[in-house]
Amino acid sequence: MGDLAKYLKQQYIEWFTRINTETGAYPSQAEFARCLGIDTQTFNHYLMAERMPRGENLDKLAVRLGPEVYELARVTSIVTTDPLLCRLVQGWDGLLPEQKEQIGTLICAFLGEGDDG
């Protein structure tokens, strides 16, 4: 299994545990994929290391999970021309975990995906 697939599974488990602890719910991988803004079937391909994210999907993962996604996907530079996204990715490592979570929650809210992280 690829490093990105392992990382995505780890992120899902952490998200699942947080949601379960906070609400008692048992969120699915499909719900996690929706929060990330990724099609469920496509996300499953990433989890199984059958495909690597590229373009817009890679950017969505990086914004939500952190710029390390680019390295794990073996991309050496940001694949976007959006200056705000570039600034966010470049500054991501300097943010506190709480700040990252707040940004992720805002993104989900703006995209109409709820605040279930």
Concise account of the structure shown:
With 117 residues, the chain is mainly alpha-helical. 65% of the residues lie in helices and 0% in strands.
Strands, helices and their partners?
Elements: H1 3-23, H2 29-36, H3 40-47, H4 55-65, H5 68-72, H6 83-91, H7 97-110
Please supply descriptive tags for the structure shown above:
117 residues; 7 helices; 0% strand
Structure description:
The structure is a single chain. The chain is mainly alpha-helical and 117 residues long. The chain has one domain (3-110). 65% of the residues lie in helices and 0% in strands. The protein contains seven helices and no strands. It has helices spanning 3-23, 29-36, 40-47, 55-65, 68-72, 83-91, 97-110. The radius of gyration is 14 Å and the shape is globular. The relative contact order is 0.14.
Query: Structural class from helices and strands?
Result: mainly alpha
Q: How large, in whole angstroms, is the Cα Rg?
A: 14 Å
Which term fits the overall shape? globular
- For the record, the count of structural domains works out to 1
Tell me the series of helices and strands, N- to C-terminal: HHHHHHH
Total number of β-strand segments? 0
**Low-confidence spans:** none
Number of helices: 7
Integer average pLDDT: 86
